[in-house]
Amino acid sequence: MNENHLEMIELELAILIRRATNLSSNKKLGSLDRSAYLLLRRIANKGAAGVKLLAEEFMLDISTISRQAASLEQKGFLYRIPDPLDGRSYKLDITELGKSVFKEHMEARLKRLSEIIEEWPDEEREVFGKLLKKFNESLIL
Fold it and tell me: pLDDT tens, 31-90?
């Protein structure tokens, strides 16, 4: 592996993470933090899920997902669906308010991203998206 390429990737990733963190904390993009956005997006797109499954998918502790979900529940964005076979178990689903807030936030993020890469040719956008997906999938242990 070419050491110069590796160093360039490492540096660019560090810069990307710094800038993306700064960008996502911009209030113009909405009121959801990254973890809330990802949790709502997952449930909005794939349906209700239990805390254990969500923890596995996000590679986080159950306690972390529980804490994030509780916060979203308090805000009225998520609600619990009891498991009829096990009174201790439940799934989390998104409320209408949660869908609305999520949609608003996603639209703001997409608008900002569109502005950033609007000068890129479609082919470069496609390649960049595919490479980002490939990289993210490589991070799964």
Answer: 788 899 999 999 999 999 999 999 999 999 999 999 999 999 999 999 999 987 787 889
The DSSP code for 95 is: -
pTM here?
0.83
pLDDT-derived band of residue 1, with 50, 70 and 90 as boundaries? Answer: confident
Of the options 1.20.1250.20, 3.40.30.10, 1.10.10.10, 3.30.70.100, the CATH number for the domain spanning 32-138 = 1.10.10.10
**Phi and psi angles of residue 91, each rounded to the nearest 5 degrees, phi first:** -115, 155
* Spatial CB neighbours of 62, under 8 Å, sequence gap ≥ 6: 51, 52, 55
The structural domains of the chain, with segments of one domain joined by +, span 32-138
Place of tokens 């996603």: 106
DSSP symbol at 84: T
Q: Is beta strand 78-83 parallel, antiparallel or unpaired with respect to 49-50? A: unpaired
The strands making up 49-50's β-sheet, listed across from edge to edge, are 49-50, 86-94, 78-83
Which burial class, exposed, middle or buried, applies to 78 when counting CB atoms under 10 A from its CB (0-12, 13-18, 19+)?
buried
